[in-house]
């Protein structure tokens, strides 16, 4: 089969070169966007009188037929046609004859491929915002049921201070909110049209880029033609945002994995989201969070891969840039898979409040509050810290927790202790004492839930 660009060549392409340089194996994912872009381009060619209106009409109809064939799986791609752009053009010409060859007037694959990528990511970013909101919804659903459930909060993975389970979940709601905002911000740079840049310098035809932008729903067009075909910042931004989303999911995964271990036993993931062992009959493994944690690495890899690919690339298009696609496509797939599972997995998760409660009763996470108690009785904080440190050491040596100490025992360490200390020690009291904006006290957490729900409803 002859090449669409075969004119200046006297030899057939080496078979291995054909295989090595072809991108059709992966860029066929962009078929819908490629045709969408071509439809807008050819409509503009007709409107501008660059090609006759009836030819534009014939090409549009041809493109629709090609689209149908692609959708029905009837279309056959060949690596001889290298990429999705030339495969579609070839199919178009087969469909409507040589008039199909007018489609590529005033256009290059360089501005075409960039346009496809912008269209592709624009659609995905909108979907990801939606998926993140669903996940926030699932977290809020759980949070609302657990505004009285207390668990140990950790620092250094050591018991630190008790917190409401709802408060812990709301931390993730906030993280995913930043992710949403990052995607929405990246959207501004994605929603810009490169088409019309030609190969690199523009085109001799009297095209109307703004008309094409309007048809495709782009907010603006690239200011500079070299930049339009060289820019892949918008993909880097997407991969960076995706990396952060995966990082957040991975941190949550790690907690879910720990929490569903026998040692913690704080939560139980629904059977539908776990798998068993082929040898150990008792096992119920948290494979989904484990895989999400694992797959985070490949998304980071794609980000670093693309940054490295772009480093030192001269303007404008270089074939290196064909390597921008697989990482992006894989990131989209990886993120879709994770987000799709996380929302229902969180919504159906069973929370073992009893176990959390027991854990809180068997630790020293109320120690800060006793120090604060002494401060309120006039002792400087640093001294109070020392006193409670000694008290805790005494407890450890006597296999007791602070709640179990008699008033006399407390008084060995400070005369300032009184009967009211026992109120201060209670986990509810410890939690509710942190009644600052953003803190874990119940009224604060309830307020945070109301605000988060209102923000979610606004979207
Ligand atoms: N398949 C190519 C890519 O993905 C399309 C652009 C090719 N342009 C070129 N001048 N060879 O980058």
UniProtKB/TrEMBL annotation:
Its main location: cytoplasm. It comes from the Bacteria. PROSITE patterns: FUMARATE_LYASES. It catalyses: 2-(N(omega)-L-arginino)succinate = fumarate + L-arginine. Keywords: Amino-acid biosynthesis, Arginine biosynthesis, Cytoplasm, Lyase. GO terms for molecular function: argininosuccinate lyase activity. The keyword Lyase applies. Pfam families: ASL_C2, Lyase_1. Coiled coil: none annotated. Belongs to the lyase 1 family. Argininosuccinate lyase subfamily. This is Argininosuccinate lyase. It comes from Marinicrinis lubricantis. The lineage of its organism: Bacteria, Bacillati, Bacillota, Bacilli, Bacillales. The gene is argH.
